[in-house]
Amino acid sequence: MTENLQNLERTEQLQLSNSTAQPLTLWIEPWGHDFLVAPGDNINMLFSGLTTSYLEIEFKEDCCIIYSWPNSSISVFQNGNEIVSY
Description:
Blueprint: E1 8-17, E2 24-29, E3 33-37, E4 42-51, E5 56-59, E6 63-67, E7 73-78, E8 81-85
Parallel strand pairs: 2-6
Antiparallel strand pairs: 1-4, 2-3, 4-7, 5-6, 7-8
């Protein structure tokens, strides 16, 4: 997808649900913060800030890595409870 993005205030929300029988590690970059997502848990993430790019998501066998844009802020909720905010 080719799109000419302007440097705009952007807000993105993602939800990750672990519907497997195994724990999943969630990495959020550029903060280098990792979370253990137990089977059945839900993680909601709210990213905001000025950007000309998108979030990127990478899946591996037992983890998920989410790359946010530089200078963004994030709030992370696990099962409805805020667990971290940058």
